């Protein structure tokens, strides 16, 4: 029997296929008419069954009937698809072609009967969970849900709309998700599987592709992204404004550092509509009200009357009545005692007569608008009801929603609400208009990202791009990305939060709402133009948002022309009928809200500035405390270098500071743009706080970097060498330290070999031992640079100078002073040759690097007595006088403090007060980093100097220099923490050196009683300038080349295999000094200089040595101590001691700290805005002329001697 039946079915199938193949165009037209009649009946039956279930949720009998109706309709469509439409040939008739295109997709009807029943049952279960979900009230959390439980609509929704209790809102938000979405996760997996199966049976890769196919647009994903890009700036302004206002309401309950808003505080379960926040956060509190809810209540408005008013609106445009949609079997109020799906919806029962609205309507403005929206669907049904059923639908899925919303835009205008008697006393002021637009934006604009993301999420589930293990995670990723909201509590995969939204269990596509919210403004603008309510050429005359096309027959005709097409044409044709353009665009929406966007942007900037000011004030307090802690730890190590426990603690605090900095960066400063703020001081702080520098490194890398630097510094600080005359000494007991032992030796010895020994051995015991660590240091800092968006760390260093042409400008400065250096170098080399004779090589103009009285040939001051131009001139070395007068270290500091106070500058005494922690003498009981330094402990009170002070002229000057730093600290101590530093990295050094220029003049040294019998002859002046040049001018090329070398390492221009080679190339090029012995790549000579292992930028010193003379000239002019062209008041003799005018200029520049660009600080002190070597050259001009003349004499003498020798040789040859 079964075999016979199977044979019979095969014969029937073959026959049907044969019929299908033989259908002529006329036959197909006839069949399509029959198909239309049949599907109308089946569609009507299904609609009625669906209606029955939605208005009596949980009725199993009705659910069973619904399943049968769905199956009957689907089975017929599937059978027709398989036998008639699937393989239908092409026809010339355009109408047939379009119908067949639509009929070749049957959606879920393609499923087998069992699968379709399963899908229907799954959707019904999910909808039942949603529609019957109840939760207990916040104040009765253990209630009896049957009798005391709250439904979503209206109970929970009303509570969310009215409450400002943060915890209550969170409770409602979480509990609703527990009782709805969470319970349907397993069913949703079944739903996804079955829907994908249906899609594949329809020829699609997945259900998402099938859904998108309904739009007849291959670029749909790109188009909606483009539309979002158009409107996102407007949404961002609205979101920002609302966030600031909610922060005012909820205070510390919200994270003020989080740019995302908690999802439960919007007055709406899904944060898709923020209109319930309006009264709390509206821009103008006293402007005319646009909420007519109260008026509706006072007028005893009924639900029925709301629908009547809506019907009248459409009829006023010449459109048909929708009376049937809210009378008869329609449900416009919740049915007492019945569990029904309250989500508002409009229904077409497929028979051209029965159209209904289902809505649990409430008497308020929101539902008044919703009524008009739902009736927009009804109007669409009415206008295309005479089309074949296959064409009865929106031109694309977004059109249906757009029509109702288009009408709602007109209905919600104050103009219309006044016209229908729901609003009075509206002033139509600018404030009123902004409020009205804001009210609309809380509904329309706030919705947009939610409308976009729901189907993006579903598409990713359908395609498999999001695995089941990440469903909820991806949901929140999209909500954070687009809505910029955050769940109020952790949401793991045990939850299914999308299911808490009706359209997920109800199987309703949602991108249509996003498209609709874009289209509605295009439709609205077009209808407003048609109604004469908006003039595109003069939009300010009647702004778009004020348009109401109520009673406009012209607008009604245009609407009718687009809607009556249904799906009979591609949606672009319907769009063209309605707007005059076939292309979808968000420009009308942007135009509509333009006045509001401008207002919000302005207000947001004000609130943004205020909020950031609060954040910066908090950072100021916390950052200063952290800075103080870090500096104290660093100080502890610097003043007890061999204490491993202190090093460990310092390293711990470095990591703590890193965590602090990163945390503040992530929560407060990341992504902030200084230019977004009006306040200059805020801009200035953010310029630096939005950069992490090395703190961008991972903890492990930062720890490695800190340890690496600590190791290098320890090598440097603890290095010792044996004396020349005992080269196999016991280093622990007999070894020489750099300071003071080797420094004194290099300063005083003239033993060429001893100097070479000390020079070479120091590099053996310091730099050479840290080469491997330096490689790690370079790699880690470059990694930090990349994390900061830079190519290498040299870029970060240079950035601190705020000079895009730093390379060129430092070279320009060097070009200005190089002729002076060359004359000094030539003169000194000639003098050294006389001292060392054949020990010095004559093959080139280089000077051996160990002969210049300093370990690095950066200062030649210790050569002065041996090579000064006039040996009989007055002495300007006060070292002996300091000792003879029993001047103590403390006295040296006191004298320095007197100098600053004499200028009217602050007292620096705390900085050298040993009882307050200062270290001004080398301790006997511990190893200390003796390099002189000034310290700011970040609390506005604690400023200290650390220095192993010796009683000599050099340290007397250094004391004043370090106290220059202290004064700078004190003068800018009231600036914000991040701006408490020099105007650029060169300023700090320049200020100390500026003071030193005055202090080191013979005039000043005489004035303070440390110099006597100074004759002030021309010879004395040349000697004084020469001595100063041995320190300042000799330093310049060294100050320039160190960072040039490091920049080349950071950038990779110098490979590791040439580090030492490149070092000596630069030293020979700029300093014109040569290593006294071969230096290959086993050495690391740069590391023999403190600033290399100590990670201290050095170009600052070069700039400082240029800048100090420029500042000095400015101060001297103010003090009346220098007059250009007056030989009695040359720049090099100026001493600004006791000049309050000069002190005032210093104060004016220094108190700015980093709060202004360095050019403004320079201007405050000198009236100039560019750093130049001109003042330095002017200062040394008398010396330059003298050296040039002396060097030329020597050169001429050498020529004369060579000529005589040549003649002698020729004569000898002649006589022989």
TrEMBL record:
The catalytic activity, as recorded, is: Release of a C-terminal dipeptide, oligopeptide-|-Xaa-Yaa, when Xaa is not Pro, and Yaa is neither Asp nor Glu. Thus, conversion of angiotensin I to angiotensin II, with increase in vasoconstrictor activity, but no action on angiotensin II
Q: Which residues form the signal peptide?
A: 1-21
Q: Name one GO biological process term.
A: proteolysis
Q: Which residues form the active site?
A: 374 (proton acceptor 1), 503 (proton donor 1), 962 (proton acceptor 2), 962 (proton acceptor 1), 1091 (proton donor 2), 1091 (proton donor 1)
Output the Gene Ontology terms for molecular function.
carboxypeptidase activity; metal ion binding; metallopeptidase activity; peptidyl-dipeptidase activity
Q: Report the SUPFAM superfamilies cross-referenced here.
A: Metalloproteases ('zincins'), catalytic domain (SSF55486)
Provide the Gene Ontology terms for cellular component: plasma membrane
Q: Where does Zn(2+) 2 bind?
A: 961, 965, 989
Q: What class of enzyme is it?
A: hydrolase
Q: How is the cofactor bound?
A: Binds 2 Zn(2+) ions per subunit.
Q: Which residues bind Zn(2+) 1?
A: 961, 965, 989
SS bonds (residue pairs): 342-360, 930-948, 1116-1134
Binding-site residues, chloride:
801
Q: Which CDD domains match?
A: M2_ACE
Concerning Gene3D superfamilies, the annotation shows:
1.10.1370.30
Q: What is its EC number?
A: 3.4.-.-
Q: Does the keyword Metal-binding apply?
A: yes
Q: List keywords of the entry alphabetically.
A: Carboxypeptidase, Disulfide bond, Glycoprotein, Hydrolase, Metal-binding, Metalloprotease, Protease, Signal, Zinc
Carbohydrate attachment sites? 725, 1080
Q: Which domain of life is it from?
A: Eukaryota
Cite the PANTHER family for this sequence.
Answer: ANGIOTENSIN-CONVERTING ENZYME
Q: Which family does it belong to?
A: Belongs to the peptidase M2 family.
Full protein name? Angiotensin-converting enzyme
